[in-house]
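Run log // design_07
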């Protein structure tokens, strides 16, 4: 009976919880194996299933995704501590949670710096300027379809797939107007392109960032999957473009001027990326420390912007025009970096905390080792990594990749590149499979829908499969 219950829990975890794929190296394998049969372990799995099941329902029940996983993380580690205390071990749980906290701290600081830069560029009208250029040029619908797709693929390696999808989605909706069919196809294309573009850059997706920070793939080596990523997007894009008309909608008269310092902030962001890469490759320090130094660049320049704007007798928030003979504008809001930091996606950052600690806690019980044995030893690395991408379409790819890195299976360099590709692009098969898709479900509500995306899943899956085959062929020397 005990074995049957244990098998049932493992099966449920395999189908519902891709985060439970791998075991933490620090856990004592002998102790962890015994803990899988305890009530503490069963309750930890059940509690995580319930908490994680609430995450996809965020928009329906209006419960932020961070709240249930934060609660689950705390309860799971209480159960871990009690379980190890029951066998006379008071050190493993303490060491395990410290390891998870360090993992989270590096991810948190990296993302905080990146999000602050994105918010600063948005405040300086960088993205609004790009959008205005596109909607005022009089392109045809098919041209806009390709332009937004290409830009999503090119921008997402730097600006992350979520920001890119929101920007290009706004362009598609502005140009498409009441043409819901075009907007739906354009949004699907943007989601696939943004995810594919983000897969071959450490800055394009959280999963690639984790792989880079762990040192599994060097910065320059990510470009080995650039062509497979392009195939992943290009195949469904070509098919979908055949269903987009060549109508030319009326150009929108929209003009936006970037604010003072916008170009410098873009330059500082690139300098920050270079700094993070140098910290990792040359100084052998965590990339997050390089990103925080880059945040210091922005902090000092923001001081200059703030002083310049405060000295203006009148400041136009759009044009940045000064008029020393006039009184201060009531709309004047000087640039403040602390406000940009406060606008970071704190719900997302706390969600990552909950997921990382939940996965770390479940690893201590030994369930993840059982499932990882089935996937990587019984199925083989190639099929396991392909399956990881399919699972990431059902639930978030972040716990998937964190679980992979937690287990640290013995794989060739080519297999690490494969799982980076699949975890980054697999979510494109469903609208809820990636942050980019979920974001556009909200902004294009009623037009871009789960069902509309699902109709094109077979075509997207074809691109997914061909991208894997392309990688296996191009990078066969690494396999």
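design_07 sequence
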């Amino acid at each position: 009976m005990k074995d049957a219950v244990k098998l049932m829990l493992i099966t449920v975890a395999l189908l519902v919880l891709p985060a439970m794929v791998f075991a933490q190296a620090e856990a004592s394998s002998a102790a962890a194996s015994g803990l899988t049969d305890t009530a503490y372990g069963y309750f930890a799995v059940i509690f995580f299933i319930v908490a994680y099941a609430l995450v996809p329902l965020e928009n329906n029940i209006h419960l932020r995704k961070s709240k249930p996983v934060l609660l689950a993380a705390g309860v799971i580690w209480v159960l871990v501590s009690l379980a190890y205390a029951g066998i006379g071990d008071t050190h493993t749980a303490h060491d395990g949670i410290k390891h998870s906290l360090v993992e989270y701290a590096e991810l948190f600081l990296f993302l905080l710096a990146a999000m602050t830069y994105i918010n600063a560029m948005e405040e300086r009208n960088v993205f609004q300027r790009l959008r205005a250029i596109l909607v005022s040029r009089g392109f045809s619908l098919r041209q806009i379809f390709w332009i937004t797709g290409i830009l999503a693929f090119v921008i997402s390696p730097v600006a992350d797939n979520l920001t890119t999808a929101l920007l290009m989605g706004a362009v598609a909706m502005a140009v498409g107007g009441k043409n819901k069919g075009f907007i739906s196809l354009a949004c699907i294309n943007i989601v696939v392109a943004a995810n594919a573009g983000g897969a071959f850059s450490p800055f394009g997706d959280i999963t690639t960032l984790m792989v880079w920070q762990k040192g599994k793939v060097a910065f320059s080596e990510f470009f080995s999957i650039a062509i497979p990523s392009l195939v992943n997007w290009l195949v469904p894009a070509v098919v979908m473009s055949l269903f987009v008309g060549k109508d030319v909608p009326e150009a929108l008269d929209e003009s936006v001027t970037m604010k003072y310092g916008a170009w410098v902030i873009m330059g500082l962001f690139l300098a920050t990326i270079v700094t993070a890469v140098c910290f990792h490759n040359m100084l052998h320090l965590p990339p997050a420390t390089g990103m925080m130094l880059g945040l210091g660049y922005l902090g000092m320049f923001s001081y200059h912007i703030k002083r310049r704007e405060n000295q203006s007798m009148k400041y136009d928030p759009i044009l940045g025009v000064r008029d020393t003979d006039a009184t201060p504008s009531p709309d004047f809001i000087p640039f403040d970096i602390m406000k940009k930091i406060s606008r970071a996606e704190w719900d997302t950052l706390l969600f990552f905390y909950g997921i990382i600690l939940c996965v770390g806690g479940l690893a201590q019980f030994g369930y993840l080792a059982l499932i990882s044995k089935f996937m990587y030893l019984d199925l083989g690395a190639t099929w396991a990594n392909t399956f990881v991408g399919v699972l990431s379409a059902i639930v978030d790819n972040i716990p998937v990749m964190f679980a992979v890195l937690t287990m640290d299976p013995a794989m060739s360099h080519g297999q690490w590149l494969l799982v980076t590709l699949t975890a980054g692009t697999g979510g494109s098969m469903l609208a809820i499979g990636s942050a980019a898709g979920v974001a556009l479900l909200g902004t294009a509500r009623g037009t871009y829908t789960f069902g509309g995306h699902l109709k094109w899943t077979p075509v997207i899956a074809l691109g997914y499969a061909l991208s894997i085959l392309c990688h296996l062929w191009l990078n066969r020397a690494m396999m």
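Confidence is low (pLDDT under 50) at residues 1-33.
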